Amino acid sequence: MSTGVAPVRPLDAASAAELHRAAARILAECGTSATSPHLLRRVAESAAALPGPARRHLRPADTDHGLFVLRGLAVDDAAIGPTPASWATAGDRGALHDVVLLLLATAMGTPLAWEGQQGGRFVHNIVPAPGHEREQTGASSDVLLSPHTEDAFHPGRAHLLLLACLRNPDGVATTAASIRRARTPDADVATLTRPELPILPDAAYARARGFAGRPPDVPTLWRSEDGLTLRFDPAYTPLEKAGPAYRAAYARLEAELARVSVAVSLNPGEVLVLDNDLVVHGRVPFTARYDGTDRWLKRASVRVPGRRTRPPAEAAEHGYGQIAVEAHVR
């Protein structure tokens, strides 16, 4: 894994200040960052009014890295309070930053929420939680969070993923690897574009894991109009059911993604923007203290209307009964 520097887009001071002012106005009107029609309407109006310089920084990732770090937002460590013990107890902690992230997400596309995850909120809290240390979810800490496509099991998954850092005193790194930087032999691409195995719901989706329908087989790679894309989650892919050739090609892809992976250690106020069709992400292990000072990220998922980076056959998948909700119907 490389510790190479990810592409950075510095947000000018005036744009950062306007984002904070807009978020503060919305929060004062709504009284909470919890999902409501009024909140979403005001976020859409304010995002549309963002100044040109801010909007230019929020254009899609334009390198083969498939990601960038937005830098320049401020976080008042005392004002946000202690890191929550879990997402379930977070409530409105860091609510101003929820709204800032929603503004960014809305400027980039359509924010996405899940009925079955984190109470249907459009911004999730990513914090270590006692009892979940060794899971393959964002609540873990002791284990390497394996590189994966966010919500890979679902056809309605995000096109973009935004990870905003509120606190990271130990410099815990997010890992990221782009399929566009990997060297993948044509024979392996041909093998991995066949829909041979399903991707099962992860442990954060308890209801989906009990879904009675047959898991659909899906391709790992796909050739879109502008290059390879991927749908990848080895921790929830039953590779033991594949033939030797498929398993070997998958292992080579996994090794190649590890080779091109970069480690991004976010500082408070930085936002990592990932293209979820090009980039798999994970996290290095760390020791959680559960004393209110642990790593604390906010996460937003975004769909980009009209994007054609996935196989059309995905439209027929059942999504394990999980319902994705879009913030703004366009």
Provide the descriptors you would attach to this structure in a database record.
14 strands, 330 residues, 4-stranded antiparallel beta sheet, alpha+beta, Double-stranded beta-helix
The CATH superfamily name is Clavaminate synthase-like
The 3D shape can be described as globular
Percent in strands: 15-25%
Largest sheet data? 8 strands, mixed
Q: For the residues shown, what is the average pLDDT?
A: 94
The CATH topology assignment is: Double-stranded beta-helix
- Count of distinct strands: 14
Distance between the termini: 40 Å
Question: Which regions are unreliable across 5 or more consecutive residues at pLDDT < 50?
Answer: none
- Tell me the number of helical segments per DSSP (H or I, 4 or more residues long): 8
Which structural class should the secondary elements be placed in?
Answer: alpha+beta
Radius of gyration (Å): 19 Å
Question: Can you walk through the features of this model?
Answer:
With 330 residues, the protein is an alpha+beta fold. The protein has a single domain, classed as 4-Layer Sandwich (Double-stranded beta-helix). It is built from 8 helices and 14 strands. The protein has helices at residues 13-30, 37-48, 52-57, 77-80, 95-108, 186-192, 206-209, 244-260; strands spanning 8-10, 67-71, 110-114, 123-126, 145-148, 160-167, 174-178, 221-224, 227-230, 262-264, 271-275, 279-283, 296-303, 324-326. The strands form 3 sheets. Strands 1, 2, 3, 4, 6, 11, 13 and 14 form an 8-stranded mixed β-sheet that branches. A hairpin with a 2-residue loop joins strand 8 (221-224) and strand 9. 43% of the residues are buried.
